[in-house]
Structures are given as structure tokens and as C-alpha cells.
């Protein structure tokens, strides 16, 4: 009898356990984006997951759920505390945003609350001014800032997001005081403030700034990255313009799951998701939308998170 | 309508207002609470005025809750609260909706309760409603609602 | 006149099919509680992956147009505004439905929507460059004053008691501050984990309007006389047209206010309907009838919220700045096909740009036709017994609130607010000013903080918030609005008081 029971238990375990690893996913998967519908992160998340239903990818569609608010804090807080760690709830991450926010405090997550799966994109921050602005280079902008300390207003998408990190780096490297104006409503609102002349300059996403420049609305004065970007070969980096700024503000976007998700599910996702990103159709749509891609595997992302956390701790120590 | 009936809601609103003001003026960082302070001040003043008016028996607007209404309301309210706050999550949306819908319909349907015909009609209405909800939300819009029992 | 050249594209078989499909689908999605136009358009984006750029945009444009109008169906018949744009429609629309004039209210709302909508799209076609400058003129200080203008409406929205109306508004303003502060990121008033993300406006709308309805139906008990609820009298369409023509003032004010406010990035869509409703009420000789099922209320609100559709796309199409969440989603639909809004769009892809705009023009007309058809059907469908209606609305509210962002927390917030509102309504509080507070709070706060940061870095608070032509104009309107309300209040008192004194004597 005991044997029979044990056997039945074993059978049940293999049945349920086996079904889990082998059949995952057997229903549509949900992916939380902590920014509003139509924002850069949302837009890219929808593109990179559009082939999830294909047989060579997950075989099940990924549905995007938006939980916007407070620079992403609302969504990630929900993800860390309330999302079920069953592999059916994924989230998009934005580096350096959530790491910077967790260092600053007041949120329920840190880099240890999540398990990265793969990275799909890297969107550097750029420094923009309106098309009719008298400033034509970072030199002009910084000269203005030195003459009028604290009076050069420049917009960005919020506090402790990539744009803010870039702003802090700029002030530190140039040794000037400027007025960073965080806007509500993400990069689009920050860009509107620049074009409308509400502020003198702004930090914004490369992809959005590239589009605004194509429309003839802004000038891009510098890129907060180590190298020039393929979308903007004519725009120099900050380093080329004599400012000691690295790539700490580059906005990396990718997929993660909550800590506690079964290891076999993580392994399966880590193996299939980078391939899904590499799909030619995805790459074509991303390029058409002006969004730079940068695919990284789970292990590479882990390293990147750790490195970023160290740099950000140093940068934010004084605040 | 009695004066006591007006005192209770306006008193509660006044209490909430005081709590909001207290939190706004004590919490840090002060910058983030600038706007709540402004609102809570107006909140407390207006709520206080309403409360005083109710105490003096000057409040006349609104029909209040007569006894008859409370008796009618109670079963529906209780079933609804159980449905929303407990059953929907625990039993799954569709199971809970089927049960909740049927109970509410049975409670408030004026058709005779001792005839099989009217019970069958209620069951059919319930089934139709759940079928429509399932096809709109699960099939068309692909919303994955909590599903614990059955579907 | 370039746009006429591209009209042919709209009438290609596939395009026309998509246009009709998008319109019908949009009406249904719009009528579903919990699905705002933004959500509906976002849901349709995956379908456009398979389509060509022009076709995809036709689908999205048609859906945008008709979801805004479709929201009127649930607003009128069930008193559940599908989106903030339809709040003002519930005020008189549902009152009309209760009087048995549901079909008439629906017909008027679709006709008014079409007139307003066509006017809005024509503005988009002919005045885009001019309007773009206008849209950009609104900086943080101006948006702040605009939000304050909205606040001044709060008191007059509730005719029963000005103090309780203002108090309801304050409760709404406070509810809006719950959650993370958007700029600083500080946590405020999060006393339950469900509130971590703040109060979602759509979930709140459903709770505040629908749940009191359900409870009111329960409170009537088991009614012996059977079928009673929304009985809809048949109403001829030509009578509705005649009615609309006799209410030109409401129509004109609604359309004008909707187009102007719709233009302003970040504010427009949500308050256009309410501001238009309030202005129409102030200018109407029949002010007293508003809120009791007056056709002018429905006409003003619906013409405004569809007139907003065209102008709200101006900042997107010309400057590549999405002025509303829906415009942001449409931007995604364009980018996927490698089309960048702005000069690029009109210079290099005129076929896409103009076909899209034309499809919205035709979409408005189609929306009106299908809408009128639905209004005719509503006469049959809405004869539902009260017990069934109560259970249906409750079920819809739960599913609707959940589907906004797949969150149980939103359902709890919806139900809590709803039950609270039911009891408060019994004592003279009302939902409309509360919701207005909920919408305006974040706009006023964010723009005040942002404005004061800019002001402190540049020329100081007073010159920044009080200087400049546009600021002064807006402040003047705010003062005039308050003065007018006070004056009307005083006059009303004198009228109601005089007979009482006579009886005392």
C-alpha cells in the first residue's frame, strides 16, 4: 500500500512537474511595461514580442499590460511585490532607471528582486535644443551655463531615470550648475517642453530626438555614450567635446521575471527570448521606428546590471 | 429625514479630511506634500462647515436612507461585496460571476419563486450573460482574468 | 485642397472594409465599460502589423473616432462613462434615458458627435500649421491656469449644494494625490497595497458612476410590476435632426470649446466635454433644465468630445509630439511602418497622411450612421428588468475595472469608491465634481511644480505665472467664471427668498 501511494505520488509529481517544464508556456504570457502605451519602451516592447506566438519562439503570444506612473516605480513595485512568479508574468526593465530608484530608496525593489532574461535595446540619452536656439554645440551650452549659473533650464523624463543620470553626469563633468526640470508624461512631454521653448534645452532619448530632428524641430548637440551612434553619425559624443562622461545613462531595455520563478522556466526563456529578438522581422520594424537594438543574453545582462549598480552608487552617493 | 443620518456621513468625511491634513502636514519630504497641504486645508474647511451644518440640523439636501430602503439594499449589498472582494479572486472571475449573478437575480427578480419556469428563465439569463462576458473579455479582448475553479 | 485628391484611396475595397470594420468594432469597444479609446487603439495595433501603413492607419483612425462616440452608449443607457470624455454625457443623457428618451438621447449624441467630429477634422485639414503654433503656446503656467479654470466648474456642476459640490471636488483632488508623486517619486497616502499605483481614473469612473446605480436598483427591492426600467420610446431620426437644428447654440459652443481645448497637449480630451457642458449651461436661458434630461446637455458634451479628435492629432502630425495617450499609441502605429510624423509625413508620404485624415472624415459619417442604427436597436434591447440590469452592470463593472490593467487592486478600488459614493449621494454629494477633481488634480499639481521649478531658475514666480498675454487671458476667464457663478447664485437666492418672505409677512 505504501509503495502504491509513493508510486502514485511520484507519478503525480512527474506529471505536474514534468508538465510544467515541458509544456511551458501553455497559455498566453503577460508582460508588464511600467510606462504608458505609446511611449518608447511600450512601442519597442510590442515590436520585440510580436513574434512570440511563432512555433520557433514561445509558441504563445505575449500580451503587453501598461502600469505607468512615477517614472516606472508604480509598475516595478507591483512586479516585485504582487506579480506571481510562475513564468506567466514578465516585465520590461529599464536600466539605469530601476537601479537608480532602488539606490535612492522609497521603493520595494532592488536589482536582487528580479531575474534578467535578455536585453533587446540600448537607447543613449542625447542633449537637444530647439531648432531656432542660438546654441550649436555643447561648448555654447556650457558657456551659457557658466555665465548664468543655475539658469540653464533643461527638461528630462523624471527624477532618477536615465535622463536625470545624464544630467547629473553633465553637471559634474562640466562643473556647472544647471536647472534640471523633470516633466510628468515621459520623454514626449520633455521633448514638447524643448520644442515649445518652455525650457532652453533638454536631455532625451536618442530615438525620439532623431525623429524630432528629422521633423526639423530640434538640434542634437551631443550623445551620452562611449561611441557615436549609427543613427546619428554626425553627432559627437560628450567625450569628443571634452566632457568626461561614460555610458552610465544609456537606457538598456529588456525582459525580466520576478525572483522565485522556477529555474527551468528561466532557462527556457533565457534560451528562446534572445533568438526571438534576433528575428529579421523584428529587426526590420525596430530599424524603421528609429530604435537602436542591442541583444544581450541572460549572463551578459547579469554582468551589466552589476556593473551599472556600482557606477550608479558612486554617482548618486552625493545626493 | 433625521438629523443623525446627516451627522454620520459628514462626520466621517470630516474625520477623513482631518486625517488627510494631519498626514500632509507631518510627512516628509515637504516638497512632495505641498499640493496635498493646499487641498487638505480646503478639504478640512469645507468638511468642517458641512459637519457643523449637519450638527445644527441645517442639512436638507439628499434623501438619506429610509428604513425600507436599507432592508431592500442589505442582501444585494452583502452578496455584491462578497462577490467582488472575495469570490472573484478566490473562485475565478467566471465561476464567481455565474454564482453571484444568479443569486442577485434570484433575490431581486419579481417573478414568482415557486415556479420551475421562472427558475429556468433565471438560469438561462445567467448563462447568456456569462457566455457574452467570456466571448468579449476572454476570446475577443484576450484579458486573462483570475481562473481558479472550472474556467 | 490636396486632401480631395486622396479621397479615392479611402474607397478602395480593402480600405473601405477596414474603415467599416474599425468603425463598428470601435463603437462596440467604446461602449464596453473599462475600455477607453487609448486601450481600444492599443488593442488594435497588433492587427496593423500585417497591414500596409495606409490601411493600418485607416483602421486606427476609424477606431479612435468611433470609440470616443461609442462611449456615449454606456454613458446614456447604463450611466457608465466609458472614458473621461463621456462624463458630461451621463449628466443629461442618463436622465433622458430614465425618462424613456434613451433612443432620442443616443440619436442626438451620435448626430452631435458627427457634426463636431467633422468640424474638428476639417480644422485639422485646413488650419494645421496655425493650430500647431497654438498648441505649443501652452506652457506649464498656462496649463496650470487651465486646470484652475476646470476647478471653478466644480462648484457649479452640482446644482444641489455649492458647498457639497466643492467638498466632493476636494475629495477627488485628494484621491488623485494617492500613490507615487509623479515628479519627486515620494509615496503618498498608500494605506493599502491596492493603492500602490494610485487610483486609476477609468476604474474610478466605473465605480463612482455604475456602482451607485446598481445599489439604487437593489434599494428599490423586488418590484412587483415587473419590467419597468429603461423603457425606450421609439424616436424618429428626422425628429432628432430637427431637434439638433433647433439647438444651434449648444451645438456651436460644444464644437468650439471641444476644438480649442482638444488642441492643448496633455489636457484636452479629458476635460473638453465637461468644460463645454458647463459653458453651454451658463449661456443657456434654460439653465435650470440641465441635469434633468435636457437635450442641450447631451449635444454640447458629445459635440465637444468628438470635435476634439481632429485637433488632438495636430501636435502629433506636425511636430511629432503626441498630445494625448491615444495620439501616442497612434504614433507607435506610424513608427512601425517607418513613417515619422512631422514634415516627413506630409512631404514624403502625403498618401498616408491624407488618406488617414480623410478616413477619419468618412469615419465620422459612418460612425453616425451605425450609431443611429444602434440607437434604433437600443429601443428593443434596453427593455431589461431591473433585477437583470443591476446584476449585468455589476458584472460589467468588475470585468471592466479588471481589464484596464489586469489588476485586482483596481477592482477593489472601484468597488470601494462605488459603495462610498452611493452613501454620499444619498446626502447631497455628487460624483461628477469628484471625478473632475480626480482628473484635474494631477494636471494642476504637475504643471504648478514644473512651472515653479522653471520660474525659480529664471525670472521668478510672479512674472512666470502672472505675466504674458495668455496667462492674463486665462486668469481673466477664471475670474469671470467665478464671478458669473457667484452672481447667478445670489440672483437665485433673491428669487427663491422673495416669495418666502411674502408668506412670512
TrEMBL record, chain A:
Do you know which Gene3D superfamilies this protein is assigned to?
Answer: Bordetella uptake gene, domain 1 (3.40.190.150), Periplasmic binding protein-like II (3.40.190.10)
For the keyword Electron transport, the answer is no
Pfam families per record: TctC
Keywords of the record? Receptor, Signal
* Signal peptide (residue range): 1-21
InterPro entries reported for this sequence? BUG, Bug_dom1
SUPFAM superfamilies with a match to the protein in the record: Periplasmic binding protein-like II
Q: Which family does it belong to?
A: Belongs to the UPF0065 (bug) family.
Q: Which PANTHER family match?
A: BLR1237 PROTEIN, TRICARBOXYLATE-BINDING PROTEIN
Instruction: State what protein this is by name.
Output: Tripartite tricarboxylate transporter family receptor
Automatic annotation (TrEMBL), chain B:
Q: Which UniProt keywords apply?
A: Membrane, Transmembrane, Transmembrane helix
Segments traversing the membrane:
7-25, 37-58, 93-111, 123-144
Keyword Transmembrane helix on entry:
yes
Q: Pfam families annotated for this entry?
A: TctB
Highest taxon in the source lineage: Bacteria
What are the DUF1468 domain coordinates in residue numbering? 12-146
**Listed InterPro entries:** DUF1468
Give the protein's recorded name: Tripartite tricarboxylate transporter TctB family protein
Organism of origin: Roseovarius litorisediminis
TrEMBL record, chain C:
Pfam (any one): TctA
For this protein, the record's InterPro entries field holds: DUF112_TM (IPR002823)
Entry keyword set: Membrane, Transmembrane, Transmembrane helix
In terms of domain of life, where is this protein from? Bacteria
Q: Where is the DUF112 domain?
A: 16-436
Keyword field contains Transmembrane helix: yes
The keyword tRNA processing appears for this protein: no
- Record-annotated membrane-spanning stretches: 16-45, 105-127, 134-155, 189-211, 251-277, 316-340, 352-375, 387-405, 434-455, 461-487
The name under which this protein is listed is Tripartite tricarboxylate transporter TctA family protein
- Native source species: Roseovarius litorisediminis
Amino acid at each position: 500500500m505504501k509503495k502504491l501511494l509513493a508510486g502514485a505520488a511520484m507519478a503525480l509529481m512527474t506529471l505536474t512537474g514534468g508538465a510544467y517544464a515541458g509544456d511551458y508556456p501553455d497559455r498566453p504570457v503577460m508582460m508588464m511595461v511600467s510606462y504608458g502605451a505609446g511611449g518608447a519602451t511600450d512601442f519597442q516592447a510590442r515590436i520585440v514580442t510580436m513574434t512570440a506566438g511563432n512555433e520557433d519562439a514561445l509558441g504563445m503570444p505575449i500580451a503587453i499590460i501598461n502600469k505607468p506612473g512615477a517614472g516606472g516605480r508604480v509598475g516595478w513595485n507591483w512586479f516585485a511585490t504582487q506579480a506571481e512568479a510562475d513564468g506567466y508574468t514578465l516585465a520590461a526593465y529599464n536600466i539605469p532607471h530601476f537601479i537608480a530608484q532602488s539606490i535612492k530608496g522609497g521603493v520595494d525593489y532592488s536589482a536582487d528582486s528580479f531575474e534578467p532574461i535578455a536585453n533587446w535595446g540600448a537607447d543613449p540619452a542625447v542633449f537637444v535644443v530647439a531648432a531656432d536656439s542660438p546654441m550649436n554645440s555643447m561648448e555654447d551650452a556650457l558657456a551659457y551655463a557658466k555665465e548664468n549659473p543655475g539658469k540653464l533650464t533643461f527638461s528630462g523624463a523624471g527624477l532618477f531615470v536615465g535622463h536625470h543620470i545624464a544630467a547629473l553626469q553633465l553637471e559634474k563633468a562640466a562643473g556647472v550648475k544647471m536647472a534640471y526640470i523633470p516633466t510628468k508624461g515621459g520623454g514626449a512631454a520633455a521633448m514638447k517642453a524643448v520644442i515649445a521653448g518652455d525650457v532652453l534645452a533638454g536631455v532625451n532619448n536618442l530615438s525620439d530626438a532623431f525623429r524630432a530632428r528629422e521633423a526639423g524641430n530640434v538640434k542634437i548637440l551631443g550623445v551620452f555614450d562611449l561611441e557615436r551612434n549609427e543613427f546619428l553619425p554626425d553627432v559627437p559624443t560628450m567625450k569628443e567635446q571634452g566632457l568626461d562622461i561614460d555610458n552610465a545613462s544609456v537606457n538598456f531595455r529588456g525582459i525580466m521575471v520576478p525572483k522565485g520563478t522556477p529555474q527551468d522556466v528561466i532557462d527556457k526563456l533565457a534560451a528562446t527570448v534572445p533568438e526571438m529578438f534576433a528575428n529579421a522581422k523584428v529587426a526590420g520594424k525596430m530599424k524603421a521606428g528609429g530604435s537602436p537594438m542591442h541583444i544581450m543574453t541572460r549572463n551578459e545582462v547579469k554582468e551589466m546590471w552589476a556593473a551599472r549598480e556600482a557606477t550608479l552608487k558612486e554617482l548618486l552617493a552625493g545626493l | 429625514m433625521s438629523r443623525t443620518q446627516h451627522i454620520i456621513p459628514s462626520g466621517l468625511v470630516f474625520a477623513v479630511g482631518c486625517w488627510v491634513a494631519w498626514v500632509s502636514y507631518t510627512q516628509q519630504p515637504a516638497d512632495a506634500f505641498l499640493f496635498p497641504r493646499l487641498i487638505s486645508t480646503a478639504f478640512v474647511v469645507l468638511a468642517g462647515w458641512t459637519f457643523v451644518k449637519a450638527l445644527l440640523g441645517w442639512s436638507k439636501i439628499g434623501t438619506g436612507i429610509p428604513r425600507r430602503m436599507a432592508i431592500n439594499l442589505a442582501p444585494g449589498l452583502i452578496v455584491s461585496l462578497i462577490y467582488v472582494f472575495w469570490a472573484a479572486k478566490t473562485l475565478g472571475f467566471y465561476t464567481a460571476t455565474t454564482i453571484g449573478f444568479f443569486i442577485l437575480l434570484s433575490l431581486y427578480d419579481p417573478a414568482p419563486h415557486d415556479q420551475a419556469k421562472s427558475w429556468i428563465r433565471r438560469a438561462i439569463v445567467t448563462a447568456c450573460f456569462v457566455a457574452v462576458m467570456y466571448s468579449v473579455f476572454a476570446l475577443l479582448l484576450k484579458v486573462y482574468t483570475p481562473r481558479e475553479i472550472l474556467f | 485642397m490636396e486632401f480631395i485628391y486622396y479621397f479615392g484611396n479611402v474607397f478602395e475595397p480593402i480600405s473601405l472594409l477596414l474603415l467599416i470594420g474599425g468603425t463598428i468594432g470601435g463603437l462596440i469597444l467604446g461602449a464596453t465599460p473599462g475600455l477607453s479609446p487609448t486601450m481600444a487603439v492599443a488593442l488594435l495595433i497588433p492587427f496593423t502589423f500585417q497591414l500596409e501603413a495606409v490601411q493600418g492607419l485607416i483602421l486606427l483612425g476609424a477606431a479612435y473616432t468611433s470609440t470616443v462616440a461609442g462611449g456615449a452608449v454606456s454613458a446614456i443607457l447604463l450611466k457608465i462613462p466609458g472614458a473621461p470624455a463621456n462624463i458630461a454625457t451621463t449628466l443629461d443623457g442618463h436622465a433622458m434615458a430614465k425618462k424613456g428618451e434613451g433612443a432620442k438621447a443616443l440619436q442626438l449624441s451620435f448626430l452631435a458627435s458627427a457634426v463636431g467630429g467633422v468640424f474638428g477634422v476639417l480644422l485639422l485639414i485646413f488650419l494645421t500649421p496655425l493650430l500647431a503654433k497654438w498648441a505649443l503656446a501652452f506652457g506649464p503656467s498656462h496649463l496650470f491656469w487651465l486646470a484652475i479654470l476646470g476647478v471653478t466648474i466644480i462648484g457649479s456642476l452640482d446644482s444641489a449644494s455649492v458647498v457639497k459640490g466643492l467638498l466632493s471636488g476636494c475629495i477627488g483632488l485628494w484621491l488623485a494625490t494617492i500613490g507615487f508623486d509623479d515628479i519627486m517619486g515620494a509615496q503618498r497616502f498608500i494605506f493599502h497595497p491596492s493603492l500602490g499605483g494610485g487610483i486609476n481614473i477609468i476604474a474610478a469612473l466605473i465605480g463612482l458612476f455604475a456602482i451607485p446605480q446598481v445599489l439604487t436598483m437593489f434599494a428599490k427591492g423586488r418590484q412587483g410590476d415587473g419590467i419597468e426600467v429603461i423603457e425606450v420610446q421609439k424616436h424618429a431620426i428626422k425628429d432628432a435632426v430637427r431637434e439638433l437644428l433647433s439647438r444651434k447654440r449648444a451645438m456651436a459652443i460644444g464644437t468650439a470649446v471641444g476644438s480649442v481645448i482638444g488642441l492643448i497637449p496633455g489636457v484636452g480630451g479629458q476635460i473638453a466635454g465637461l468644460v463645454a457642458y458647463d459653458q453651454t449651461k451658463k449661456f443657456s436661458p434654460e439653465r435650470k433644465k440641465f441635469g434633468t434630461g435636457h437635450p442641450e446637455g447631451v449635444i454640447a458634451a458629445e459635440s465637444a468630445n468628438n470635435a476634439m479628435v481632429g485637433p488632438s492629432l495636430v501636435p502629433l502630425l506636425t511636430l511629432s509630439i503626441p498630445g494625448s495617450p491615444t495620439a501616442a499609441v497612434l504614433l507607435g502605429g506610424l513608427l512601425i511602418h517607418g513613417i515619422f510624423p512631422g514634415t516627413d509625413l506630409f512631404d514624403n508620404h502625403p498618401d498616408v497622411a491624407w488618406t488617414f485624415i480623410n478616413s477619419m472624415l468618412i469615419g465620422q459619417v459612418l460612425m453616425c450612421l451605425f450609431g443611429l442604427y444602434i440607437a434604433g436597436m437600443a429601443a428593443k434591447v434596453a427593455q431589461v428588468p431591473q433585477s437583470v440590469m443591476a446584476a449585468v452592470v455589476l458584472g460589467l463593472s468588475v470585468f471592466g475595472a479588471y481589464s484596464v490593467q489586469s489588476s485586482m487592486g483596481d477592482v477593489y478600488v472601484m468597488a470601494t469608491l462605488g459603495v462610498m459614493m452611493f452613501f454620499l449621494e444619498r446626502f447631497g454629494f455628487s460624483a461628477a465634481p469628484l471625478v473632475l477633481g480626480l482628473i484635474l488634480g494631477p494636471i494642476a499639481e504637475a504643471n504648478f511644480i514644473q512651472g515653479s521649478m522653471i520660474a525659480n531658475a529664471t525670472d521668478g514666480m510672479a512674472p512666470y505665472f502672472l505675466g504674458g498675454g495668455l496667462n492674463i487671458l486665462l486668469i481673466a476667464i477664471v475670474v469671470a467664471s467665478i464671478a458669473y457663478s457667484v452672481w447667478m447664485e445670489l440672483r437665485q437666492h433673491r428669487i427663491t427668498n422673495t416669495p418666502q418672505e411674502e408668506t412670512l409677512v
